[in-house]
Design brief:
8-stranded antiparallel beta sheet, binds oxidized coenzyme A, 7-stranded mixed beta sheet, alpha+beta, 12 helices
Length: about 550
């Protein structure tokens, strides 16, 4: 057993590049050529392989460190260190660069003179020792205008990914590659029309001087160089004008991992430095899709308006020419309708809803509310029945905490705060503003805040912060009418209280029928978190609070 230093070998023109991933830790057994870490410049990422086999004894670098050729990465306990074939990493790293000298010329030599206005062929430039690499992303389509050096495609080898820039500015008239194609130097990527710029001079200026000819570099170095992206001139940073999400920021190994799982990387939110997507992000995304808390764009588009696409066996949605039956007009859905519709659809399909109905005798509470409003006429604040229901909800959530919860994979998140949402009908559609910390507020404060939020909702001025973080929602149709309904749960909440219009009804008091004001309640709940008995208890308790509000202080 000997201790071997593993250093960063010659990595072409990569200098002072940041470590964005550590792929091994102390105690891991690594094989020769196994990737140890990923480094990333603003142009490309690459994995650094081990020069030796052995067990990692000590890490000498950490995430975020900047490294270059010769930097000590780790110490290995290597059984084979003494073997002559396994040259010390230091020696390997010190080998001269095998950087591909002619890259500058390749980028600088567009196939057609810059002044041309006819179709120009954009080809893969010299990309070092990349041979037959797969196209993993195509960023442009026919009709797109591209700038000089704008990324057109990403190619990927085992160890690195690289974006291939356009040698000209112009409009894409034809694409000659698609995802999955294998390309190499000279492969035709696209035809451009309306070429207007003269790229040669700029590219030559940006290109580095040819690297010295390689000596007999050891095998490991040769392999690293083979993985190394070509000099920077060939790889511009992401074009900020590219469509959002078209260029997910992730290392080759994470891209590969995502592809294996069929994860749409552009839908994953990266939590790594500079928003980079990590393996954990991809795993978390898969977990949330499986738990139903995320619906991918592909899933959504598979089921537009119930075309049966994601429900095999269902009839397709009927296509009807309504104009055949009489005059019609067409109107686009509002932005709110589109957003709330997509959310409601997801919640309706993915949550096993059950709705329990109940009645609350609010005769005394309504009398109290009316009297309170009379006494406080001048205050400008009108106390609403909904404000009492919000207070009653807080008390019921305290008594039945599983209603103040969210499902997160195989865990239930129980909340120790009480933010209550209420559905508000607006000319543009349904929104659910949230009264924060309703447990700390009185009826007047809640009434005033509700009135402000309802006004903001009608004026289309609610901010996202006004509508997020809710624990439980109330949907009141009491001002309109109706008896009972089945409200859809506002995920990630697990229950919602629907309220309809109260009416005077005869109630038996033991001796006679007496007129009482009865409020119909409809509680929808998520059967994955709550069961029917708990829902019935919640409803009975909630109704009892409204029937005698003094119970709230018990
Ligand atoms: N029974 C009888 N009357 C009721 C009542 C009830 N349950 N709830 C309210 N009312 C009365 C009020 O007392 C008020 O009467 P007055 O004008 O005589 O005082 C009147 O109905 C109008 O109330 P309101 O609707 O303006 O006020 P609110 O506090 O009850 O509700 C708000 C406010 C924003 C929730 C409501 O305006 C709203 O938008 N409701 C619709 C919610 C909705 O669309 N839900 C469906 C979601 S699922 O598609």
């Amino acid at each position: 057993m000997a201790t071997v230093e593993v250093k960063v070998p010659d990595i072409g023109d990569f200098k002072d590049v940041e470590i964005i991933e550590l792929l091994v830790k102390v105690g891991d057994t690594v094989a020769v050529d196994q990737s140890l870490l990923t480094v990333e410049s603003d142009k490309a990422s690459m994995e650094i392989p081990s020069s030796h086999a052995g067990v990692v004894k000590e890490m000498k670098v950490k995430l975020g460190d900047k490294v270059g050729q010769g930097v000590l990465v780790l110490l290995l306990e290597s059984a084979g260190a003494a073997a002559p074939a396994a040259a010390p990493a230091t020696a390997s790293a010190a080998a001269p660069a095998a950087a591909p000298a002619p890259v500058a010329a390749a980028v600088a030599a567009p196939a057609v003179a810059a002044a041309s206005v006819g179709p120009v062929e954009v080809r893969v430039p010299d990309i070092g020792d990349f041979k037959e690499v797969a196209v993993i992303e195509v960023f442009v389509k026919p009709g797109d205008s591209v700038k000089l050096e704008q990324s057109l495609i990403t190619v990927e080898s085992d160890k690195a990914s690289m974006e291939i820039p356009s040698s000209h500015a112009g409009v894409v008239s034809e694409l000659k590659v698609k995802v999955g194609d294998k390309v190499k130097e000279g492969s035709l990527i696209a035809l451009l029309q309306g070429v207007a710029s003269a790229p040669a001079a700029a590219a030559v200026a940006a290109a580095p001087a040819p690297a010295p000819a390689p000596a007999a570099a050891p095998a490991v170095v040769a392999q690293v160089v083979a993985s190394a992206p070509a000099p920077a001139a060939a790889m511009p940073a992401h074009d900020p004008t590219a469509p959002k999400g078209a260029l997910p920021h992730a290392s080759p190994s994470v891209r590969r991992f995502a592809r294996e799982l069929g994860v749409p990387l552009h839908e994953v939110v990266g939590t790594g430095p500079k928003g980079r997507i990590t393996q954990d992000d991809v795993q978390g995304f898969v977990k949330r899709v499986m738990a139903g808390s995320i619906v991918t764009a592909a899933q959504k588009s598979a089921a537009p308006a119930g075309d049966g696409g994601s429900f095999p066996g269902l009839l397709a949605w009927p296509k009807v020419d309504f104009a055949k039956f009489g005059p019609i007009e067409r109107k686009d859905l509002s932005r709110i309708q589109k957003i709330s519709g997509a959310n409601l659809h997801r919640n309706w399909v993915l949550i096993p809803h059950v709705t329990n109905h109940e009645e609350a005798d609010i005769t005394d509470l309504e009398a109290f509310r009316v009297a309170t409003n009379k006494e406080n006429e001048k205050s400008g604040v009108k106390v609403t029945m909904l404000a009492f229901m919000i207070k009653a909800t807080v008390a019921a959530l305290k008594k039945f905490p599983q209603f103040n919860a969210s499902l997160d994979g195989e865990q239930i998140v129980l909340k120790n705060y009480f933010h209550i949402g209420f559905a508000a009908d607006t000319p543009n559609g349904l929104v659910v503003p949230v009264i924060r910390d309703a447990d700390k507020k009185g009826i007047f404060e809640i009434s005033a805040e509700m009135s402000d939020l309802a006004k903001k909702a009608r004026d289309g001025k609610l901010s996202p912060a006004d509508m997020t973080g809710g624990c439980f929602s109330i949907s009141s149709l009491g001002g309109i009418g109706g008896r009972y309904f089945t409200p859809i749960i506002n995920a990630p909440e697990v229950a919602i209280m629907g309220v309809c219009k109260s009416s005077m009804e005869p109630r038996w008091d033991g001796k006679q029928f007496v007129p009482r004001l009865i409020l119909p309640l409809s509680l929808s709940w998520d059967h994955r978190v709550i069961d029917g008995a708990a829902a019935a208890r919640f409803n009975v308790y909630f109704a009892s609070l409204l029937a005698d509000f003094r119970r709230i202080v018990l």
